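Attaching the record inline, Q. Sequence:
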Amino acid sequence: QLLRIVVHLIFNITMHPRVKVYKLSEEGEWQDKGTGHISLEYMEQSDAMGLLILAEENQKTLLVHKIRPEDQMYQRGEESTIITWHDFELNSDVAISFQEQIGCEHIWNQIVQVQAEVQKRSSEGPRLDKQESQPSGEYLFVDEKGLELPWPELNTIEEISRVLNNASPFQRDRLVPTLLKPNWIPKLIDVFKQAEDLDDSATLAHMYGAVKGAIMLNDAAVLEELLKDQYVMDIVGALEYDPELKSPQPHRQFLNTSVAFKEVVPIKDPTILAKIHQTYRTQYIKDVILPRTLDDATYATLSSLTLFNNVEVVSALAADPNFLKQLFLSLEAASSSDPEWADLVAFLQEFCNLARHLQQANRQQLFNKLVQLGLFEQVTRILKVGNESTKLKATDVLLSIIQHDTPALRTFLLKQPNHMMFALLIREFTEGAGDSGLPEQVADLLKQLLDPDTMDTSVEKNEFLDVFYDQFLGRLLDVLVQDKGINPREGTRSVPAATIGLVVDLMCFLVLQHSFRCKYWALRNQLVPKVMSVLRRKERWLVCAAVRFFRTMLSIKGDIEFYTRIILKGNLLEPLMTVFIENGTRYNLLYSAVLELLEYIRKSNIKPLIEFLVVHYSDRFADMDYTETFKGLRVRYEQHQDAGAESEEARARALASTRTGEPPLRGLTYAFGLDGEPLGPAGRAEPVGVLRRRRRDERDLEKSEEDYFESDDNEADTAEGPSSHEQQQQQHQDLGNRHRRSRSRSPDVEQGGKEQQGGEGAQHQAGVGVGS
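Structure, as predicted:
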C-alpha cells in the first residue's frame, strides 16, 4: 500500500504538474490567470498536440495551446521552473510557472519531443490519412470520450485492447479504477478461457494486447492484482498469443513442468511460499515474456515488486528461530556426493545474495547470526571437498559477506588452525580452472581482504599481512616459475593465461597498496624479475600486463629510486625493449603501452633509465622517427651530460683556485679555543679567501683577527721566534674568548673537538684544529 501511494504521488507530480498561468498585459505587467494542472493532449479538431491547463478547483479550462514547431518558440532557463512563449492566437506573451522542477522538466521534454516529431513529419511530406498524421511513438493519443473501458466480453476485447494501448501516459491513471472494480479482472480471465476453448485466434491476439496494456499502465495495485496466484497462470497464458510471433509460446507448460520448486528446508508459512512463487513468475514475465515491450518505468516497477518480495521473504526466514539452525544442521549432515548437499549450498548462496538488500542494521544482525551458526566452517568444507560449481557458490557467499563485514572474515582467517580457508583460497586461485570463473572471484576476494583502507586497527593490519606475505605470497609467484610458457626448461605445468593475468594484476595491487612491505619482500624474494618474466608468454595481452606492472612500479614517487635499482641490477629493461622492437611498427596495444611507459620515464626524468635507454638503444631510436618520444629521450640524455660537464668544470675551477696560494682544505673545518671550546660552527670547507670575505661581512673582524686567519702557524713558529709566538698565543686566547661568548656548541663541533685532542701540541697551544 505504501509503494502504491508513493508511485501515485510521483505519477501525479510528473504527469499532471501543478502550475500558475500568467499573461503579459498591454502595460507590460504579468497577470495571474489562475492555478491548475497541465497535461499534453491530442487536439482532434486541429489534428495536433497541445497543452491543456484545467483549473484545480472547478476543472475549468484555463489555457489551450497548440504546440508549434518553430525553433526558439519556447523559452526555459537552465534549472528554471518557468516556460514562456508568444501566443499568436492571444497576441500576447504567456508564462507557465511550475510548482515542482520535475514537472517542468517533464512537460519541457514533451514539448521538445512533439516539435521534433512535427518537424520530422514536415520533412517527410504529406500523410495519406488521419491516423498517419498522429505522432509516431509507442502510443497513440485518444480522445477523452474513448477512455471508458467496456465490460469484458468476447466482442469488446478489441476495444479494451485499443483503449489500454493507445492511452497517453497522462490518461493511464484514469483507467486504473476501472481495472480495480470488483470482478473486472476475473471477468477478463473468463473471456480468455472462452476464447481459448473456441480457438478464436483473433480474440486471443486482442487478449494479449489487453493484458499487455494493463501491465503497461504501471500501477502497483493493478500489477499485484494481476499477479495473484489465482490469476497469474491465466495472465501468462494470455501473453502466449503474441500476434507478432508465428505460433503461441508454451510459457505455462514450462512453468508447470520444467520449473521445479525445491524446498531444501521446509517453509511452514504459506504466505512466504506464495511470495516466493509470485516473485519467480514476476521475474519470468519481466525477463522472458515481455522484455522487448516493457518501457523503463514498468520494468523498474516490476523490479521493485520483486525486490520487496525478496526482502519480505528473507526477513521472515531470518526471524524464524528454527529455520537457519535446520539449514546448517542439514549442511553438516549431508554428504558432499549427495545431490541434496548441492541444493543446500545453492540455497545458502541465494539467501546471502538476497540478504544484501536488507537495511544495514538487519543485514549486520543476520550476517552475525550466520557466522555464529558456522557459516565460515561450512564454506571451508565446501572449498575442500566440493566441485567447481559448489566452490563457485561458496566464494560468492564470501563476497556477499565481505562487502558488509570484512573484519569478521579476516579475523576467522587469522584464528583458524593452519589458516585452512586461506590456503584453500590460494589453491583455487593458482590451480582452479581458467574458464570456471573461480580464480577471478578469489582474486577479487583477496583484494578486498588485503585492502588497508578496510583494516580498522594496525594490529589487525600487521598480523593479517604478515600471514599473507610470509605464507601465501610465495605460492602465488610460484605459478609464474612453474609455467612452461615462461620457463620451458624448468616449468612443470601449463598455467592458464587468465590465472597468470590475475597474478600480475594482484602484484600491481600490492605494489600500490603495500609500498613499504612489498618493497621489503621484493628485495628478498626476487618479486620483480619473476613478474617481468611474463614477457616471455606468447599472449600479447599478458605481455601488456607485464608492461603495466613495470609502469605501476614507477608510478609511486617515493619508490622510483628503489625499483630503478632493481630494474638496472636485473637488466629488466632489456627484455621489455626486445619485445617492443620485435613488435615492429604494428600500432597495437603493446606498442601504445610501451610508448606510454617511455614517455613517462622521459617526463619524470628518471636519469638512470634514460641513460640506459639512450646508451643501449640510440641506434634503434634513430630509425624510430614516427614519434617524438625517442627524440625527447635523447634530448634529456644530452641535457644530463651537459649538466655533468658543467659540474665537473666548476669543481675543476674551485680546485684550481685553492692552488693559488691558499691551502686546499677538504671536508669540515673546525676551530677551537685554548680550552677546547669550539670557536665557530662546523661546515663544509671553503677557499680561505671566500671564508675571509664572508666573515668580514658577518662580524667586521678586526685587523688582528684578519692577520690571524691569513697567517701560517708553521711559518710563524720558524720565523718569529718565542716572542712572536707568545704574542700570537695571546691574540688567539682573546679571539677564543670572544667566540665562546657569541656562539653555541653543536654536536659536529664537539665531535671535531674530540678528534683534535690527540693532535700536535703546537695546534693545542694555537687553539686551531682541522678535521677532514
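The chain has a mean pLDDT of 79. DSSP finds 35 helices and ten strands in the chain.

More tomorrow.
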